Amino acid sequence: MNSLAFGPLRQRAASAYHHLPRLHTSSLRAYASIHSLHPLPTSTQQPPLSSTVAPEPPSQLASLEGAGPKPSPARPEKKRPQLRATKAALNLTPSAVQRLRQLVSGPTPQLIRIGVRNKGCAGMAYHLEYVEKPGKFDEVVTQDGVKVLIDSKALFSIIGSEMHWQEDRLSSKFIFKNPNIVDACGCGESFNVAA
C-alpha cells in the first residue's frame, strides 16, 4: 500500500484528534463548576468558563448524591366547584303530595314517572306510569317524603311546573301548571311548548 494515498486522510484525523481533548476537558470543567467539584487544571489554549451558572453548596450536593431523581414539585389543589341549591324541576302542592303518598304506599312499593307523549290536538299530553326503579337519566324529585321521577325526554317540557291534585263531582286528576306552555287545546288535555 502506498502511504501517500492516506496522507490527506491522516491529516484530517490528526486535526480532529487535537480538538477532542480540548472539547472533552472543557465539558469536564463545566461539569466540575456546576457541581462544585475540584476544578481541573486549565491550559493556556482554552478560554476560562463564564460564571453564569452558580454552583450548588456542598451541603446540598452531599444530600442529593444517591438520592435518585428529584421529586416533582407539589401541584396546587384545584378548587372544586361549589354545588348550589337549585329549584326543583317540579313542585308538588300539599294535595298532590297526599295523593301521591296514597298511590305509592300500596302492597308493592313503586315509583311514579311523569312523562310527555305526542297526543291531542295541541301536540303533547302528560303521561303518568308506575315503575319499579328509576331510569338511567330520570330526574328524581323528592318533596315531603314523596319521590317522583321525571322522564329525561320530558324534562325540558316539564321543568318549573307545579303538580296539583284536583277532585270535584265529575273528575279527579292531576293538573299541571306549566310556565313553558305556549299553546294549549280548549279542553286542557294537551299542550305545546316553545321549541
From TrEMBL:
Query: Positions of the region Disordered?
Result: 38-82
Gene Ontology CC terms, in alphabetical order = mitochondrion
Q: What are the residue boundaries of the Core domain, all occurrences included?
A: 90-189
Tell me the GO BP annotations in alphabetical order.
iron-sulfur cluster assembly
Q: Which domain of life is it from?
A: Eukaryota
One MF term in the entry's GO annotations: 2 iron, 2 sulfur cluster binding
Composition-biased stretches (Polar residues): 41-53
PROSITE patterns referenced in this protein's UniProt entry, alphabetically: HESB
Q: What does the UniProt function comment say about this protein?
A: Involved in the assembly of mitochondrial and cytoplasmic iron-sulfur proteins. Probably involved in the binding of an intermediate of Fe/S cluster assembly.
Q: Which family does it belong to?
A: Belongs to the HesB/IscA family.
| Protein name in the entry | Iron-sulfur assembly protein 1
Species, as recorded: Botryobasidium botryosum (strain FD-172 SS1)
